[in-house]
Amino acid sequence: MASSLANCNIRQVIGVCQLTCTADKTENFQKAKTLIARCVQQGAKMVFLPEACDYLADNQQHTMEMAEAMEGETVNQYRQLAKDLSVWISIGSFHQKPADSSSKKLYNTHVILNDQGEIQATYSKAHMFNLDIPGKIRLCESDYTIPGDRITPPVDTPIGKVGMGICYDMRFPEMAVGLRNLGAEVLTYPSAFTVPTGMAHWHVLLRNRAVETQCYVVAAAQSGKHNEKRSSYGHSLIVDPWGAVVAECSEGEGTCVAEINLEYLHQIRRQMPIQDHRRLDLYGQISLHSKDNNIDGIKEYEFGQHKIGCKQVFFKTALSYAFVNIKPVVPGHILSKQCSHRVVSFYSHADILY
């Protein structure tokens, strides 16, 4: 089902910006600003930037030193730009300082801004790209990046419900299918792909994610030489739900635009209803878990005279729900209640499992 924001117009133009970022934050922002404005002039309602659109430093020490908080200058500049241009912006990712100032690592965080410059959603990269070929190359994100511990539910935008990923996440179809199960219509993978892996896998991976989820896939990319040690593949893509590439940048900096047509998307899903054909009895349903997940959008449940917060509920059926006690009398016990508001019983964790 299309998102509420998209229902007013199911055909919207998006723009993708391809950058060659360096360690110069100011120059990187100015180039992005110019490209975003170009996309807006072409009618884009939402514009997508690549991974690490704030900077790509020469070494790990500089990468850490240049990182900013969510409230820092980089995000604030983009917030003001989104407001000034009345456009939604996907900040593909920036190097985010963690709250713990003593941490020697940072987050790789994707931010979606609405056209009022407000932060609509964030997602920190979950899958770490670790490449270590002795004598040739070492590029290990886990050396300086904290992996994200949550998947962000699809975000309502003017172009549809957008599922957020970053670069290496595209290699994990479970995440893409999980986002589709949560209602995603567009998947986005801002990236900084290496040249060898890009030549071999870039188009294949992105088209596969589109075909298996029947979603649009948007991948803004870094391109070209960032410093003496690092270059990126480029070839930013927009792929439709049939797996066709509808827009692509080549190499170097630039933009491409395409129309997101949700009517076409849902036509494909109706004509080939692969979601209905999944054999969940054989391999189960892919679900995405987050530490702050709310099981069904209900903020509170009743348990006698007590109110149970949504984060305590971990299992629910049509007839009952189960939740953890904040202060259990006996460790390992849970509580279960019928939806008819009659207390059923108390079970141990082992009783529930077996």
From TrEMBL:
Cross-referenced InterPro entries: C-N_Hydrolase, C-N_Hydrolase_sf, HIT-like_sf, Nit1/2_C-N_Hydrolase, UPF0012_CS
Cleaved signal peptide residues: none
Transmembrane segments: none
GO MF annotation terms: hydrolase activity, acting on carbon-nitrogen (but not peptide) bonds, in linear amides
Pfam families, A to Z: CN_hydrolase
Annotated CN hydrolase domain residues: 12-262
Keywords: Hydrolase
SUPFAM superfamilies: Carbon-nitrogen hydrolase
Superkingdom classification of source: Eukaryota
Protein name stated in the entry: CN hydrolase domain-containing protein
Source organism of this protein record: Dreissena polymorpha (Zebra mussel)
